Amino acid sequence: MAGGIGFVLSFIAVVFVHHAAAQKVHVVGDATGWTIPPATTFYSEWADKNTFAVGDSLSFKFTTGSHDVLKVSKESFEACSTDKGIGSPLTTGPATVKLDTAGEHYFICSVGKHCLGGQKLAVTVSGSGTPAGGAVSPSPSTTEEPSKTLAPANSPSSSVPKVGDEPSANSPSSSSSVPKDAESPAAPAPSSSTVVHVVGDTTGWTVPSTDTFYSEWAVKNAFAVGDSLSFEFLTGAHDVIQVPKESFEACNSDKAIGSVLTTGPATVKLNTAGVHYFICSIGKHCLGGQKLAVTVFSSDSTTPGGAVSPSPSGTKEPSKTANSPSSSVPKSGETPAAPAPSSSTEVMATIYVTLSAIVMNLLF
To answer: What are the residues whose beta carbons fall under 8 Å from the beta carbon of 33, sequence distance 6 or more?
Structure first.
């Protein structure tokens, strides 16, 4: 009798461990996180590489105030509309959504035109762990205008500023971490071997997953007079504006240098040596980390590294920012709060198995 009870307890514990281990947390977009992607097919391609089962969770990693997550119906997903949202938007990042039911699930970012820029995800959840491909084929209607979106960016400008142009007043702004100025060497003639630096590499120019992303990217590059910066972004979703140090630190576009670049991709030629500062002036994108400071050296300089050391004053509020989004918590049962990590469940189950073994030994 005692042996039978011990066997049952052990069997239940093994099943419990297996079930906990089978549940998986999928980080949406992997290292890119939840943001406006470099290509509109980015998240569908990511979903294709993953398999989703009931009990799994989606982890949306984004900067609070720059993005959100809203579960919607299929028709709202295709039209980038929030009319038929399921529950309230998740506005605090990172946000976790439990996949409690099988079938197709649709998620968008309801901020501005982010959804139209490709910040939308459709996944197919299987009832078991059977692989079925996680992506849902997009509909041709996904390029329709959303029924409820924030005002788009200003109409595109054809003027491309060069470093050193005279400043002109511009649109509002926002932002986060702050670089310190460095000495500005005299500007020599541009080098014959110039380099075009794609800002952010494959991530492009967007609100990054961390506010140190672009400063870390700059550290890995060396910038010389005559080189160019290529800002790759979706027209209407972002812009590029060169500013002085104080405006960079405050995420303020009041003292803009030259015109705002609103058409992506945008290229800026680095014609002078010294420290140059760039921000996105849309919404709170700058506060979310969409800002870049680079140190440009003369063409004959051997000093490496293009980043500027961050300044402690980088956390002060900008003088002009957009209203912060709602921090409401989802009400729908389909988007509940994140469950306890499966790793802790496995630990508990392991302890349970150990205790069961001890009980069995005592009974025998």
So the answer is: 27, 60, 61, 62, 208, 209
Q: Kindly list the distances between the CA atom of residue 174 and the CA atoms of 66, 297, 321, in Å, as whole numbers in the listed order.
A: 10, 28, 5
Neighbours of 98 (CB within 10 A): 19
Contact present, 148 and 234 (Cβ < 8 Å):
no
What would you measure as the largest C-alpha separation in the chain, in angstroms?
Answer: 91
Q: Check if the beta carbon of residue 67 is closer than 8 Å to that of residue 134.
A: no
Place of tokens 């097919």: 41
Residue 283 CB neighbours (<10 A): 27
pLDDT for residue 246 is more than 50 = yes
Any idea what DSSP says for residue 313? G
Would you say the pTM of this structure is higher than 0.85? Answer: no
Token pair listed for 263: 């058409």
Query: What is the SS3 assignment for 264?
Result: coil
Among all chains, which residue has been given the structure tokens 């405006």? 247
Q: What is the pLDDT of residues 30-69, one digit of tens each?
A: 999 999 998 889 999 999 999 999 999 999 999 998 899 9
Q: Which residues of 242-252 are buried (b: 16+ CB within 10 A; e: fewer)?
A: bbbbebbbbbb
What letter would DSSP give residue 44? H
CB 295 within 8 A of CB 275: yes
